[in-house]
Design a protein that fits this description.
Elements (H helix, E strand, L loop, with lengths): L1 E4 L8 E4 L5 E5 L6 H11 L2 E6 L11 H8 L2 E5 L9 E3 L4 E4 L2 E7 L8 E4 L3 E5 L19 H12 L6 E4 L11 H7 L8 H9 L7 H11 L34 E2 L1 H9 L7 E4 L3 H4 L10 E2 L9 H4 L6 E5 L4 H12 L4 E5 L2 H10 L1
Parallel strand pairs: 3-4, 4-5, 5-6, 10-11, 12-16, 13-14, 13-15, 15-16
Antiparallel strand pairs: 1-2, 2-3, 7-8, 8-9, 9-10
Helix pairs in contact: 3-5
Bound molecules: fe (ii) ion.
Fe (ii) ion (FE2) binds next to loops.
């Protein structure tokens, strides 16, 4: 079996080919690289028969339509795919053969409802259903995403044989593919949890996808072959759970400020020089928890895009706030990396702030 990963970016495209029949399959092609794929196929003497997108991508424009047009290969996706130019839609359990290489499709919704994994005898292409190690899995807050369905998909993956090597559609930190046995040990999304606990774990992060991802989805629904159909930041880890909010997840400890200290300073009128950035969604500021007076509201998913607007606070004390402290930590991290000098995450968020009023 010929097996190659074709891209130099974090978005991974796989070429699978039969040594005997010289037939080939490309999985998750990226539009910008289609000319390279075409010349590689020619140089290797391979005939592209099928192209598969593991799901409707929200972070890059698929090259599948263009590649199908240029090579005559059949564009395949799961039967729930909304992508217009798909030629062949497959159900869960669909079995196929590439020359002498058998493969099976497993429907694994959660990141999107049309997500699938492609299983070969010795490896599994997981799309964004499962990443490697602490990369976890693709985010579940995109249109069609669902944490509960993702949990179901994880249960399917856990039951697969340990020896399968895991090849995801993204790898943002240079991690090397390893076996499913390793992933069962190391990947947080594969750890035993109830469906409720899993759903809560993902939902609590409540991270909003960046606005540009909507443009990418639309381009992919329409099979756009225009690389400028959406403005995509270079190599952003956008399909990660915290991808559009945190460039280097968990790499540093963010300085914190306690609720008690914030309250003390409000009471003593000592917070005047500081800026409080509430990174929840606008509707949450109007919920029962309310908001601290005078905050600036920048939802965590927009922090990266609105850095220019916040630039004037680079030398000011900045306190980030959310519901529980998790999103605020992501936002604080991002601000620190962008050069903000005095950033603190209010520990426990507005939940702790309100609880302190009752004690
Ligand atoms: Fe994705």
């Amino acid at each position: 079996m010929i097996f190659k990963q074709l891209n130099k970016i974090s978005c991974k495209t796989y070429l699978i080919g039969s040594e005997n029949s010289r037939e080939a399959l490309v999985v998750d092609p990226v539009l910008n690289y289609v000319p390279e794929y075409v010349s590689l196929l020619k140089n290797e003497g391979l005939k592209l028969t099928h192209i598969i997108d593991t799901h409707t991508h929200a972070d890059h424009i698929s090259g599948a339509g263009a590649l199908a047009e240029q090579t005559g290969a059949v564009y395949v996706m799961h039967q729930l795919s909304p992508v217009r130019c798909v030629a062949f839609r497959v159900p869960d359990g669909f079995e196929c053969r590439l020359g002498d290489i058998p493969a099976r499709v497993m429907h694994t919704p959660g990141h999107t409802n049309d997500s699938l994994c492609l299983i070969f005898s010795d490896r599994i292409l997981t799309g964004d259903t499962l990443f490697l190690d602490d990369g976890g899995a693709g985010r579940t807050d995109l249109p069609g995403g669902d944490p509960a369905q993702h949990w179901e998909s994880m249960q399917k993956i856990v039951k697969l044989p340990d020896h399968l090597l895991v090849y995801p559609a993204h790898e943002y930190r240079g991690r090397e593919p390893s076996s499913l046995a390793e992933q069962k040990k190391r990947n947080p999304n594969l750890q035993p949890r109830t469906k409720e606990a899993y759903t809560k774990w993902l939902s609590d992060m409540k991270l909003t996808p960046a606005e540009w991802m909507g443009d990418v989805l639309k381009a992919n629904y329409d099979c756009s072959q225009d690389p400028k159909a959406a403005r995509i930041p270079t190599d952003a880890p956008a399909c990660e759970v915290k991808g559009t909010a945190s460039p280097k997840l968990g790499e540093q400890q963010t300085p914190t400020i306690s609720v008690a200290e914030v309250k003390r300073r409000i009471a003593a009128n000592q917070l005047k020089g500081a800026v409080i950035i509430d990174v929840r969604e606008p509707a949450e500021l109007k919920s029962d928890l309310g908001a601290i007076g005078g905050v600036i509201n920048v939802p965590v998913g927009q922090v990266a895009q609105r850095l220019g607007e916040l630039e004037k606070y680079k030398d000011t004390e900045v306190i980030t706030v959310c519901k529980s402290g998790m999103r605020a930590d992501v936002a604080a991290n991002l601000l620190i990396k962008a050069g903000f000098k005095k950033v603190f995450n209010m520990t426990g968020g507005m939940t702790a702030f309100r609880a302190a009023e009752k004690t």
